[in-house]
Amino acid sequence: MMSCLDDGRFHGELGNGLSSDGYASIEDAVKVLLQGLGEDTNREGIRKTPFRVAKALREGTRGYKQKVKDIVQDALFPEAGLDNKVGHAGGAGGLVIVRDLDHFSYCESCLLPFQVKCHVGYVPSGQRVLGLSKFSRVAGIFARRLQEPQHLADEICSALHQEIQPAGVAVVLQCTHVHFPDIELQILDPNHQGWLETIVSSGSGVFEDKQADDWADFLGLLRLRGTVMEKLKFRRSSDPYWCPSLSIKVSSAIEPANPGMVAAAAKIIKSLGEDPLRKELRETPRRFVEWFRNFQNKPDMKVSGFLCGRRDALSMNGEVDLNSKRVYAELGIPFWAQCEHHLLPFHGVVHIGYFILDGFKPIGRSHLQSIIHFYGFKLQVQERLTRQIAEAISPLLGGDVIVVAEASHTCMISRGIEKFGSNTSTIAVLGCFATEVTARASFLKTIPSPASPAGQ
Amino acid sequence: MMSCLDDGRFHGELGNGLSSDGYASIEDAVKVLLQGLGEDTNREGIRKTPFRVAKALREGTRGYKQKVKDIVQDALFPEAGLDNKVGHAGGAGGLVIVRDLDHFSYCESCLLPFQVKCHVGYVPSGQRVLGLSKFSRVAGIFARRLQEPQHLADEICSALHQEIQPAGVAVVLQCTHVHFPDIELQILDPNHQGWLETIVSSGSGVFEDKQADDWADFLGLLRLRGTVMEKLKFRRSSDPYWCPSLSIKVSSAIEPANPGMVAAAAKIIKSLGEDPLRKELRETPRRFVEWFRNFQNKPDMKVSGFLCGRRDALSMNGEVDLNSKRVYAELGIPFWAQCEHHLLPFHGVVHIGYFILDGFKPIGRSHLQSIIHFYGFKLQVQERLTRQIAEAISPLLGGDVIVVAEASHTCMISRGIEKFGSNTSTIAVLGCFATEVTARASFLKTIPSPASPAGQ
């Protein structure tokens, strides 16, 4: 198994990764996908999207072209240890752990990126140690491919063991996959964060036995950085699905997936150098297209005929004294959208503020959720989504409206910039929220802050 | 001021950044610096250090060669806004914030890297918005130079304003600089984390006035990610020093800095394309050498003559029943070291465990601190440091010793891998700590974990 690791599973000819041939075939496929959503591929916002997607996919899977040996060979350093009778330290038995290495990978089941927090440990032997940065570089080689968490952990572990020849290597990966939109579930659970986590591990040598003392040391050291493994559930082999696409029932009986789009997705997989007929990849194009078609282009909502009773009730009141109004806040309504620049999901929550008068019931949360989903489930940018939600709800809510969208963008982690902790916020303000900073401030203060626990 | 931004302050000829000429002159200078510490530049661990340092410095200052226009020009998208009478949203007045962008920069006062958490906001105008990832890319252009926090914030702000032409741009930077070793201070304050934080801000257009409503909105949105500005102190112009090298008194009267080393440091600055005679850089080579010479090579400690009374006392007891011993833990002793592979600091804490018998006083913390500093203040790797500490204290403590080092490596954030949250742990175990997993586990449990607050 180890002998083929260096070669990966790459079959294509990528040259320097900038080969226009390879780009062109992905770009063509992306155009087919965009047309399948009913989009005009000459529209300004998406005109260069096929190129951006091709570039991001190529960079994001460049691990196929990289060799572990190239990374490791210049970074093995002689390092004294202790006589085994005295103890274990340094280059002979001294456990080394590198924790919290952030990476991303591509899910081989659905083609979406997933985040990987990687912890690696090893017990050196033979009086030599590996430069610390190389654990991250080697993990990156295998992460930047189409992957599945357990397979990724096994590959990192085997490759490090082969190159370092230590007493043993241990790998723990905390993988987070974007959830798939499920409107019912999200309405039931407003705190739904949109992430699925799975934890996998792999061990070689002294770490081969999960009950070995070395694992106790390794997990004891992970705890020092706050990774408390007792609280986390490792995936068992009886949990077959980690990617949500695998648990979605094939809806082909109702609405068959567009065969042209499925063929285009298969063409992309092939262009990355993978074999679309490999067992794990055979259904991936269909699953990707099922996900992707959530974002079908659709004509604008007829807001005037939607919940109009509410608007009439409020507009009857005409201009009211601001001081007699109070801010009503509907917080943390989940949303989903697909970034039209990179064809990657962004998701988060929308907070809505408006004024209500005594005696009037606030608008139902599920109605707001429906409007948000209507504008979310299409190719979007966060600025536009925020404006569209504000414009749609404003006539229903008397014209004084603030909308704040808080989002994680998959495109901010899974391309060159790799800004793992970053997050984006957008605001749209109408009526007195546009003119009164105190109205905005009093609304923003109602939104809970993650780092301001109760009592602070 | 804005007109010269795109050109930066780069004067050299770097070509593709891999020019062997540029590398060679930095490599030669690094050799002089290593020799100045009394190191043998042919020693295996540091033989390739000059090349690694040259490569890291070149990559870390590649911002001199990058142009903001190249980043921004393809990423300005038409985006509808609202009629100004109705409100503000999208491409006309809809505030956008991108938070928590992790970067690093190089301190122009001392040449050490510092971390930057960058928050950028802008108010679009003219119905156009900038692709979200570009805020990070533009910040990166200016971060990857020799910098000072306020200047960095101003450059990011001005460049974004010039290219986007929005209603205004706001930038907040949380910069953390490695502290300089100060043995007295650290012994007094065992929880000293080794970082200095400063917060700076810059605003253009509607953000020019710090009292403007737009700043209230911006800070209100930062709070949603836990960045509570009221708790943080912005740097005032009356706080002149943020880099600790600027507050160190010139010790040249006592021990003049090696002129050859200072000239070598100046040569490095010049090779990066900077002007060593620029006002802010004139004293930088001397300051760098002052820092660097903390890590002078020195002969091994004569441990046998050090604290030997303690060893005698324990050795008199001979082999004692393990069950009658109890683990004594000395936690969180700060350490400093210089990574010999990259000539960058790594620092953190050492936890020491040993057994004491009833009636014996534990060894003094300041004695342990002295030993740790002796081995820390030289060119090191963490594995060796841990072993050397364990070997040095073992004879003083009866032979049953566990040493855990927890460290942040500046080289893990300030080169290509940029793994901002990563952290490394190493263990050395002697005597029964090498053989008994329960002894190790009971010691590790005494170390507090950051994410296990009291009560969990």
Automatic annotation (TrEMBL), chains A, B:
<keyword id="KW-0378">Hydrolase</keyword>
<protein>
    <recommendedName>
        <fullName>GTP cyclohydrolase 1</fullName>
        <ecNumber>3.5.4.16</ecNumber>
    </recommendedName>
</protein>
<dbReference type="GO" id="GO:0003934">
    <property type="term" value="F:GTP cyclohydrolase I activity"/>
</dbReference>
<dbReference type="InterPro" id="IPR043134">
    <property type="entry name" value="GTP-CH-I_N"/>
</dbReference>
<dbReference type="InterPro" id="IPR043133">
    <property type="entry name" value="GTP-CH-I_C/QueF"/>
</dbReference>
<dbReference type="InterPro" id="IPR020602">
    <property type="entry name" value="GTP_CycHdrlase_I_dom"/>
</dbReference>
<dbReference type="InterPro" id="IPR001474">
    <property type="entry name" value="GTP_CycHdrlase_I"/>
</dbReference>
<dbReference type="Pfam" id="PF01227">
    <property type="entry name" value="GTP_cyclohydroI"/>
</dbReference>
<feature type="domain" description="GTP cyclohydrolase I">
    <location>
        <begin position="26"/>
        <end position="178"/>
    </location>
</feature>
<comment type="similarity">
    <text>Belongs to the GTP cyclohydrolase I family.</text>
</comment>
<feature type="domain" description="GTP cyclohydrolase I">
    <location>
        <begin position="263"/>
        <end position="447"/>
    </location>
</feature>
<comment type="pathway">
    <text>Cofactor biosynthesis; 7,8-dihydroneopterin triphosphate biosynthesis; 7,8-dihydroneopterin triphosphate from GTP: step 1/1.</text>
</comment>
